[in-house]
Amino acid sequence: MERPSARTTYTFGEFRLDPVKRLLWRGAEPVPLLPKAMDMLLVLLTERGRVLEKDELLSRIWPDTIVEEANLSVTMSALRKALGESAQEHRSIVTIPRRGYQFVGEVSQNP
Questions:
Q1: Model's pTM, two decimal places?
Q2: What is the DSSP string of the chain?
Q3: How many CA atoms lie within 13 A of 22 on its CB side?
Q4: Residue 84 within a domain
Q5: Closest C-alpha to 17, from 88, 87, 80, 109
Q6: By residue range, what is the domain housing residue 37?
Q7: Number of folded domains that form the chain
Q8: What is the pLDDT of residues 43-82, one digit of tens each?
Q9: Is residue 70 part of a domain?
Q10: d(Cα 67, Cα 103) in Å, to the nearest integer?
Q11: In CATH, what number is assigned to the domain containing residue 47?
């Protein structure tokens, strides 16, 4: 996975992400996130607006590892839960049926 600049942060909705420190905050509160969910969020943010195919996500989040598509679903579920999204409401990350996922939320990237 591409290494972000030491000063880069992403802001979306009420969240702020420091990709170097691998920390996510909702306002002033830290949001616990499992390592693979953090990897997934970073990929989705850096490729925001683009539909990421399931195979591409699997290879970028689990490089050189054989994993099943179920791992992707479980990780996405954990990420959505951390972002406060319900099964019925996907504000930031949408599922593209039979293809993959897309980050559709407004994102600002601070150098």
A1: 0.90
A2: -PPPPTT-EEEETTEEEETTTTEEEETTEEE---HHHHHHHHHHHHTTTSPEEHHHHHHHHSTT----HHHHHHHHHHHHHHTT--SS--SSEEEETTTEEEE-S--EEE-
A3: 11
A4: yes
A5: 109
A6: 9-110
A7: 1
A8: 999 999 999 999 999 999 999 999 999 999 999 999 999 9
A9: yes
A10: 22
A11: 1.10.10.10
